[in-house]
Design brief:
The chain is mainly α and 251 residues long. It has 10 helices and 3 strands; from the N terminus they run H-H-E-E-E-H-H-H-H-H-H-H-H. It has helices at 3-22, 27-39, 80-91, 98-109, 116-133, 138-159, 165-186, 193-201, 207-218, 222-250; strands at 45-51, 55-62, 65-72. It has a 3-stranded antiparallel sheet with strand order 1-2-3, with helices on one face. A hairpin with a 2-residue loop joins strand 2 (55-62) and strand 3.
């Protein structure tokens, strides 16, 4: 493996790791996949991947040369289909050339998520499901669907702007409480505001961050585990502050 191929391999490994991390994969999964892909190519040895929530560092040895890459990560999303495809790609990496790997990563990276209206409808139906678990009435379920749809639309729009993620969550938390109060006051007087609020707030709960934080901690990645749980804690505070603000405004 010459220097040019070594650099191409480093770029392929880093790109696979970045796609995994930005799509919501656990830290240990990202590091393990990067090391596996690197070792799949002859001439590469001693891979070392160090991944945190905000950066990826990777190095390996090729013919007495140490190839190193460092990339800062600023964008996060949840796309488990990309995580699954990268995992599948890593299992077949030994039977692929660098050019085939690059084309496969291009194809995976170019995939777009679901349309905004599908995500909004999913948010509405999820709110209905949480409302049913809380024993909401039929009118409450209808209100929960509309509120969940609106919140998911607003949250999606805010996340795509330059607004800080915690501020976007605070605004969405405000709507989780304010919208049910307005529905009760002007549309459905008998609406159980508490059930509607619970059904809406469930959409914002950082379940993936909590799960990944716990799994990273159990795997021994204490730095990443602490970062994940801290992120979840701050999101929970933002939701609570948004709800509190709505209650103060509506009082």
């Amino acid at each position: 493996m010459d220097l040019q191929e070594s650099n191409r391999l480093a770029s392929v490994v880093m790109r696979a790791g970045l796609i995994l991390l930005e799509s919501g994969a656990e830290i240990y999964r990202v590091e393990d996949t990067m090391n596996r892909i690197c070792l799949s190519f002859p001439g590469a040895a001693q891979p070392e991947a160090f991944v945190t929530r905000t950066g990826v560092m990777f190095s390996f040895k090729a013919h007495e040369r140490i190839i190193t890459r460092v990339v800062r990560v600023q964008h996060y999303d949840t796309d488990l289909s990309k995580v699954d495809e990268i995992n599948s790609l890593s299992r077949h990496a030994s039977a692929m050339t660098l050019s085939q790997m690059e084309r496969a990563l291009d194809k995976i990276d170019a995939q777009k998520g679901y349309p905004w209206w599908v995500i909004a409808l999913a948010g509405g139906f999820c709110s209905v499901g949480f409302g049913m678990m809380d024993g909401a009435s039929l009118q409450g379920l209808v209100a929960a669907f509309g509120i969940g749809l609106i919140i998911w639309l607003v949250d999606g729009l805010l996340q795509k702007t330059f607004i800080n993620g915690l501020l976007a969550t605070l605004i969405s938390g405000f709507l989780c409480t304010w919208l049910p109060m307005m529905v009760q006051e002007y549309l459905i007087p008998e609406l159980d505001v508490g059930s509607a609020v619970v059904a809406a707030i469930a959409l914002l709960v950082p379940g993936l961050a909590i799960t990944n934080g716990i799994r990273d901690t159990i795997s021994g990645d204490y730095l990443s585990g602490l970062a994940g749980t801290t992120e979840a804690f701050l999101v929970a505070i933002a939701i609570a502050l948004g709800c509190l603000t709505a209650m103060m405004v509506g009082a």
